[in-house]
Amino acid sequence: MNQKIGVLGCGNMGGAIVRGLLNKIDQVYAYDRNLKNRESLNQMTNVTLYNSAEELARNIDVLIIAIKPNSIIDVLKQLEVCKTYNLVISVAANVTLSQLQSGTSSQVIRTIPNTAAILNKSITISTAESPILSLIGDVVVLPEEKFHAGMILGGCQPAFAMKYIRAAQLAGIEMGLTSQQAQDISVGAVSGAMEILNHGGTPDLECNRVMSPGGVTVKGVNKLEELGFTGVVIQALKACK
């Protein structure tokens, strides 16, 4: 890729994007005002770390902006006088396209990746296609009126999945496994299930295939539903609004 990609804000999300990009391209340009984040960036090869947002803006073709939402418009306006980039990719959760466009004359794409970007496995919700986003994982393009729902499913569910794995790990420990054994088995089981879905399976069909009549799986699934599993998941996701 010939474009020079700059990342402004390299905390949890921005840092994951930088690392994911470095798996695919030779050079990334970055700035973060946080000393700890800057030290982390300094340890990476193939990252050009600038001393200010303005210096970054003068030396890139594409700006990925991953700073606090309440300051993003002001920062874009400040960079307008010195920028060389013609595309802004925002990862701010609740800043709309029209708000972003009010701060810059560049083309704007609104996105929500997730931290799996570090392994190029993000599911990124976006208002437009971009080959840059494809570098960090899969992309789902949605109109802005559906963006928030996509953002919740794509951005929040990794934490939900981690909570499930942790709960399963604790159950395994109670049943006599070591912590690592319980984690490895749980991760492997969930990863395998996801691969089946990625190859054309559906949740209902695959559940039915596993739940033999009178078997241990159907007993466990029935207990989940008795405790309100499906309803709790729906309520929790809707609460993310």
Automatic annotation (TrEMBL):
Keyword NADP: yes
Coiled coil: none
A GO molecular-function annotation: pyrroline-5-carboxylate reductase activity
Transmembrane segments: none
Binding sites annotated in the UniProt record for NADP(+): L8, G9, C10, G11, N12, M13, A66, I67, K68, P69
Domain Pyrroline-5-carboxylate reductase dimerisation: 144-240
Keyword NADP: yes
Keywords: NADP, Oxidoreductase
Matches recorded under Pfam families: F420_oxidored, P5CR_dimer
SUPFAM superfamilies listed in its UniProt record: 6-phosphogluconate dehydrogenase C-terminal domain-like, NAD(P)-binding Rossmann-fold domains
Domain (Pyrroline-5-carboxylate reductase catalytic N-terminal): residue spans on this chain: 4-93
Domain of life per record: Eukaryota
One GO BP: L-proline biosynthetic process
Protein family membership: Belongs to the pyrroline-5-carboxylate reductase family.
The protein's name in its UniProt record: Pyrroline-5-carboxylate reductase
